[in-house]
Amino acid sequence: MPSAPRSALVRWFQSDTHTRWGAGPEQFDPTFTRRLHGQMGRLFGDGRYFELETRGWDNLPARNVLLVSNHSGGTTLLDAFGLWYAWHRHHDFGRPAHGLGHEMIFASDRTGSVCSKLGGVRACRELGAQVLTQWGRDLIVMPGGDMDVWRPWKDRYKVRFAGRRGYARLAMRTGVPIVPIAHAGMQSSMMVLTDGSRFARAVGIPRIARASIFPVSLSLPWGLQIGPWPHLPPPTRLRYRIGKPLHPPKICGPGETPPAHLVEEFDRQVQASIQEMLDELRETSHTRQVVADCKQHLARWLEERFQETPGSPMRPPAPVVVAPAVDVTGKAA
């Protein structure tokens, strides 16, 4: 069982909640998941509000794995829902996957019931190990959490796990391979100016809400947005890349605590793999392609324009041919 909520705000929310949502994989509801997936098809997919592009399914082993991804797009969590939708569409509901989530998600009946029925569980090592070993299912984690999802605009193509290595320790304790996943798209739906981590520490937000940020951003419909409020993203293309599995070193038995230096090294390997895929996504981003196409069209237009305009300064003047002088008899002078 997960421990009691660690944030004061969650304890206040849960005062009126009778069901402890996110308490285990047994709350997963396949019928509810299939029905909601059908409804979400109006939002995700080809030609929809959020187009999906997922590559690398061949890298996924047949056995259960720990899926580790970066996190993007603010409080709306649409990058997580996009991955959830793509996962079930690809596996046709034949391979349930559970995701670790912040305790705030499970604090109320409205959000807690939905996420739990979709496979969400509270983020703690005991539940993670239970999903991977006792249930033998896949587990999705986004270690960076609030620090990653609210990273500034300039770092939108960078991994930001903020020193959180619990996922690497979990993989090493259970012997389950990690499959890295890189996502790009949702972080471009808003412009985060600052994560506000210093302000958050100063006013005690980690104690109040178990969060390390209080961001300032530009987004719809707020304009200048202060705080981690949900925003309305414009139509966005969500791109995912699934990397090759990374196997943890076999240096400890089940349940034993691995050495810290080996955990750090494994964490570096995972982050390097995700960063490499993010770099590829950046180089093939839609924005870059649009800019490149605009430059190409502009260059072509300018070239055609100057070719059609006589006496253009960018076009060399035509050579002047001087006819020889002739006298009245028609003979050359």
Question: In summary, what is this structure?
Answer:
The protein has 333 residues and is an alpha/beta fold.
Can you tell me about this structure?
- The protein is α/β, with parallel strands linked by helices and 333 residues long.
- 37% of the residues lie in helices and 14% in strands.
- The chain has helices at residues 8-13, 30-40, 78-91, 109-117, 125-134, 145-149, 166-174, 197-203, 205-209, 260-283, 286-308, and strands spanning 50-55, 66-69, 97-101, 120-122, 138-141, 178-184, 191-194, 216-219, 223-226, 236-242.
- Strands 1-10-6-2-5-3-4 form a 7-stranded mixed beta sheet, with helices on both faces.
- The mean pLDDT is 87.
Order of strands in the sheet with most strands: 1-10-6-2-5-3-4
Mean pLDDT: 87
Succession of helices and strands: HHEEHEHEHEHHEEHHEEEHH
Instruction: Please report which band the strand proportion falls in: under 5%, 5-15%, 15-25%, 25-35%, 35-45% or over 45%.
Output: 5-15%
Runs in which pLDDT lies below 50 for 5 or more consecutive residues are none
Q: Tell me about the largest β-sheet.
A: 7 strands, mixed
Q: Determine Rg (CA atoms, Å).
A: 28 Å
**Helical percent range?**
25-40%
DSSP helical segment count: 11
Structural class assignment:
alpha/beta
In total, how many beta strands? Answer: 10
Distance between the termini: 112 Å
Shape, per Cα inertia axes: globular
